[in-house]
Design goal:
Distance between the termini: 37 Å
Number of domains: 1
CATH class: Mainly Alpha
Number of helices: 11
Largest sheet: none
């Protein structure tokens, strides 16, 4: 699918702020990709798609995932409705948008939690989602600078920041995120 068509379809399914975020992630990911040996159009597509299920309610996501047997809907993800958009996004990317690139699908699946053995595209989306230019939270400027120098160090910094945030809120940290830190 052409990126322009994908962009229009994603825009039609997301609230304006969420689409602006997805577009910002896509642009940042694309900009980083070429310097890292990843095709920029793949990074752009993954950035656009990473939150494609966020326009659905949790109930709609639950129904969509009722028959989903993919590896990205593990026990820890099932227990956390805030993460359902990850496997739901994989489902939509495949079935609504016709994406079969496994790297893009893995990037969509892992953009919130990360994982121990991520490829470059997955790492790019994991970090870009956290520190795209529209986001403004503590420590983000340092992670942006780090990402331009050392993507692996930025991945670890994002995983630490996400873990700390969840722990401060008394929430569980997904095992994939903890695995990034080992």
């Amino acid at each position: 699918m052409k990126l322009e068509i994908l962009e229009k379809k994603i825009k039609a399914c997301l609230p304006p702020k969420r689409f602006a975020h997805s577009l910002s992630v896509a642009r940042l990911a694309s900009a980083w990709a070429s310097g890292l040996g990843v095709r920029p159009e793949r990074a752009y597509a993954a950035g656009l798609l990473h939150d494609c299920a966020r326009g659905l309610t949790h109930e709609q996501q639950r129904k969509l995932l009722a028959g989903y047997r993919g590896k990205f809907f593990d026990r820890a993800t099932r227990a956390c409705p805030a993460l359902w958009h990850n496997p739901a996004g994989v489902f939509l990317a495949r079935h609504r948008y016709g994406v079969h690139d496994t790297g893009i699908l893995r990037a969509v699946a892992l953009h919130s939690t990360g994982a121990a053995r991520m490829g470059l595209l997955e790492k790019i989306i994991f970090v870009a989602d956290y520190c795209e230019p529209l986001r403004q939270h503590a420590g983000i400027a340092g992670i942006r600078k780090l990402a331009e120098k050392n993507l692996d160090a930025a991945v670890a910094a994002v995983a630490r920041a996400k873990s700390k945030y969840l722990q401060q809120r008394g929430e569980r940290v997904h095992p994939n995120c903890l695995a990034v830190l080992k």
